[in-house]
């Protein structure tokens, strides 16, 4: 029997800034579902932002889903494959994009997982904990989307 | 016809800054300014909140250095709960907080050097922007890139183990800390398989210092002459003059090394420091009251700390400190690019400190919290990676915050960063008819040496492009470039 895929769901954002915490809440919701279903090959994590050490984290995975809030006027959620991009060093920002992390993983380890970015549209970004009403609805859609996605790939 | 050049990064919910460089009719720079938008709403936002929430609440400010805000707030609240003014905690609490803090210094400085600064050094300021990041480094020197990534990872893991979690850590609480390090955690950091152990981190830190010194030896002109200007320097130091990044008294020296702030108790900082508001910038300009707005501004951060301290209390970093000090014959070092040298010496010091703390039995056992007579006001200072960070709170009888004043490191470095921009503009752009990418890179490199944190908010997804606009003296747009 084939080993199950090693899957990572990795969200990022600051839950102290309202809808910027969409990714973090997404991980909490998925955690419950994964526990209830006794799924063993899916690792969940979240952080304020992506950074260079995350290249190590994804290097031993087969499939990675990055999850982030979006300020763009997308539909409620947007899902797309991530292509590696070396980008450029920005003025002062200390964070990195999924494409940059993927490119760094390739450079350092000569391998990379199949990688996707799930963006969830947010609306409010003030110094508050808790999602806006519209963001909550988008979160539910995103969670259902991911459950279906994992269902298709499941060999657990 | 006079020209105005604007370099403007555009961000999401981060703060943002722009540089304007004003040229006269002959193309010479007559004025340059760094404008930074700063979030000041936070100080009003916390009013009315229970004081004990602060160490967690302040982490909403910044996804880049939440640990520094966490600890500075906790230190201010130590005073409010009657746990002394920095030396009243239990040995366990103080050492756990120090371990958290040195983990933060270690990861933050490593990220800055390997990801943001070393590409400028390896590829030069006229290097292709696409390769000026850690991936570019990986293509040239894979070992160096791996070291950078793993050093950052190690520091992050120390923070997670001491703060309790990655996001909105809860480790430091008013009057102490809420957990010990487990023996398993300690042993993992001390004896983990290579490269995840403290001895490897110390070795790599030493190699990073050596890498910079070798580069400096081969590129003295650039490192010594790129952005040099006289400055006062301010930081915490231990009472005996040693470098101490967690606690101490406040000291400042002038460009000649004369003490101009005499090891004061920072609970009295308002008697010595004020902040000037200038119409063209949202960010204030702090200065020493005794020396006034024009002469009293100061630099904070790694370079300032090596200029104010008399010694470093760990052996390998002390050895490097002696080399560093001898380069300027013991006088304060005012060469902006030497900030990177100072930062790497602090990386080495932080690694040595982490080892010392991990080997201390107080880390894994002992009393966690002390309380005393409550006060209604507290001030907490810490040497954050980018420099001195001030948190000041007042509470009412219902334990609610009624006043908060935060002076963040990047605010303290506001005038020095403007001085750096001015120096570079005059030396790289004056007399030129066209603004080239290397000239703009030079401005960026000068500012980046200070590792400014403009976010105080969250991550920035996507690009943070530079938009360059060229105006004539009538503010007509002549040209605009985005890169």
Describe, in short, the structure shown.
In chain A, 35% of the residues lie in helices and 21% in strands. With 156 residues, chain A is of the alpha/beta class. Helices cover 41% and strands 19% of the residues of chain B.
Q: Round the mean pLDDT of chain A to the nearest integer and report it.
A: 88
Give the helices and strands of chain A as they follow along the chain.
EHEHEEHEH
Q: Could you say what the CATH architecture of chain A is? A: 3-Layer(aba) Sandwich
Strand order of the largest sheet of chain A: 2-1-3-5-4
Note the beta-strand portion of chain B.
15-25%
Main sheet makeup of chain A: 5 strands, mixed
Report on the architecture of this protein.
The complex is a heterodimer of chains A (156) and B (483). In chain A, 35% of the residues lie in helices and 21% in strands. Chain A is an alpha/beta fold and 156 residues long. In chain A, helix 1 (22-36) links the parallel strand 1 and strand 2. Chain A has helices at 22-36, 54-59, 98-109, 133-153; strands at 7-12, 42-47, 63-70, 77-81, 114-121. Chain B has 16 helices and 16 strands. Among the domains of chain B are: 3-40 and 432-482, no CATH class; 90-170 and 183-228 and 335-369. In chain B, the strands form 5 sheets. Chain B has a 5-stranded antiparallel sheet with strand order 3-2-1-15-16, covered by helices on one side. Chain B has a 4-stranded mixed sheet with strand order 8-7-6-11. The two termini of chain B are 26 Å apart. Chain B has 483 residues and is α+β, with helices and mostly antiparallel strands. At the A-B interface, helix 3 of A face helix 1, helix 4, helix 5, helix 6 and helix 16 of B.
Per-chain topology:
The complex is a heterodimer of chains A (156) and B (483).
Chain A: E1 7-12, H1 22-36, E2 42-47, H2 54-59, E3 63-70, E4 77-81, H3 98-109, E5 114-121, H4 133-153
Parallel strand pairs in A: 1-2, 1-3, 3-5
Antiparallel strand pairs in A: 4-5
Helix pairs in contact in A: 1-4
Chain B: E1 3-9, E2 17-23, E3 29-36, H1 41-45, H2 54-57, H3 66-80, H4 91-123, H5 134-140, H6 142-163, E4 172-173, E5 176-177, H7 183-191, H8 198-218, H9 220-225, E6 232-237, E7 249-253, E8 259-264, E9 273-276, E10 285-288, H10 292-295, E11 298-299, H11 302-308, H12 315-327, H13 338-358, E12 377-384, E13 387-395, E14 401-407, H14 409-412, H15 414-429, H16 437-448, E15 466-472, E16 477-482
Parallel strand pairs in B: 6-11
Antiparallel strand pairs in B: 1-2, 1-15, 2-3, 4-5, 6-7, 7-8, 9-10, 12-13, 13-14, 15-16
């Amino acid at each position: 029997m084939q080993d199950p895929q090693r899957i990572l769901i990795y969200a990022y954002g600051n839950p102290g800034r309202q809808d910027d915490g969409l990714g973090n809440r997404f991980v909490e919701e998925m955690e419950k579902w994964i526990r209830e279903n006794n799924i063993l090959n899916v690792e969940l994590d979240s952080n304020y932002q992506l950074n260079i050490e995350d290249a190590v984290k994804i290097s031993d995975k087969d499939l990675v889903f990055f999850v982030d809030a979006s300020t763009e006027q997308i539909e409620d959620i947007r899902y797309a494959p991530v292509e590696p991009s070396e980008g450029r060093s920005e003025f002062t920002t200390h964070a990195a994009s999924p494409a940059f992390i993927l490119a760094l993983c390739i450079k350092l380890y000569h391998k990379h997982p199949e990688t996707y970015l799930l963006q969830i549209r947010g609306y409010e970004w003030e110094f508050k904990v808790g999602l806006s009403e519209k963001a909550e609805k988008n979160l539910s859609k995103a969670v259902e989307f991911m459950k279906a996605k994992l269902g298709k790939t499941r060999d657990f | 016809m006079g020209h105005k050049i604007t370099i403007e990064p555009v961000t999401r919910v981060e703060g943002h800054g722009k540089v304007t460089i004003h040229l006269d009719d002959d193309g010479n720079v007559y004025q340059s300014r760094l404008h930074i938008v700063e979030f000041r709403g936070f100080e009003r936002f916390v009013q009315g909140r229970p004081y004990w929430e602060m160490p967690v609440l302040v982490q909403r400010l910044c996804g880049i250095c939440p640990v520094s805000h966490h600890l500075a707030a906790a230190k201010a609240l130590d005073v409010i709960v009657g746990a002394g003014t920095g030396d009243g905690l239990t040995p366990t609490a103080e050492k756990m907080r120090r371990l958290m803090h040195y983990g933060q210094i270690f990861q933050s400085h490593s990220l800055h050097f390997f990801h943001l600064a070393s590409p400028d050094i390896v590829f030069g300021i006229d290097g292709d922007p696409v390769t000026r990041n850690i991936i570019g480094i990986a293509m040239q020197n894979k070992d160096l890139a791996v070291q950078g990534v793993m050093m950052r990872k190690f520091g992050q893991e120390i923070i997670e183990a001491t703060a309790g979690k990655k996001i909105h850590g809860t480790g430091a609480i008013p009057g102490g800390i809420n957990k010990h390090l487990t023996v398993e955690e300690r042993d993992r950091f001390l004896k983990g398989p290579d490269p995840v152990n403290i001895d490897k981190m110390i070795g790599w830190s030493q190699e990073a210092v050596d890498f910079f010194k070798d580069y400096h030896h081969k590129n003295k002109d650039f490192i010594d002459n790129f952005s040099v200007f006289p400055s006062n320097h301010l930081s915490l130091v231990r009472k005996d003059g040693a470098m101490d990044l967690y606690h101490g008294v406040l000291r400042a020296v002038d460009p000649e090394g004369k003490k101009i702030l005499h090891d004061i108790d920072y609970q009295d900082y308002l008697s010595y420091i004020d902040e000037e508001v200038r119409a063209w910038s949202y960010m204030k300009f702090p200065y020493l009251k005794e020396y006034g707005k024009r002469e009293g501004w100061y630099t904070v951060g790694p370079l300032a700390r090596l200029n104010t301290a008399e010694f470093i209390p760990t052996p390998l970093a002390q050895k490097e400190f002696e080399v560093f000090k001898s380069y300027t014959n013991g006088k304060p070092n005012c060469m902006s690019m030497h900030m990177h040298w100072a930062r790497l010496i602090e990386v080495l010091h932080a690694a040595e400190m982490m080892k010392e703390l991990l080997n201390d039995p107080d880390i894994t056992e002992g009393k966690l919290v002390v309380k005393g007579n409550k006060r209604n006001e507290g001030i907490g200072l810490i040497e954050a990676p980018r420099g001195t960070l001030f948190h000041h709170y007042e509470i009412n009888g219902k334990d609610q915050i009624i006043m908060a004043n935060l002076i963040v490191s990047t605010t303290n470095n506001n005038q020095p960063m403007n001085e750096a921009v001015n120096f570079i503009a005059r030396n790289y752009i004056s007399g030129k008819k066209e603004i080239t990418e290397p000239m703009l890179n030079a401005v960026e490199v000068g500012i980046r040496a200070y590792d400014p944190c403009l976010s105080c908010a969250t991550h920035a997804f996507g690009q943070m492009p530079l938009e360059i606009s060229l105006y004539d003296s009538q503010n007509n747009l002549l040209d605009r470039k985005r890169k």
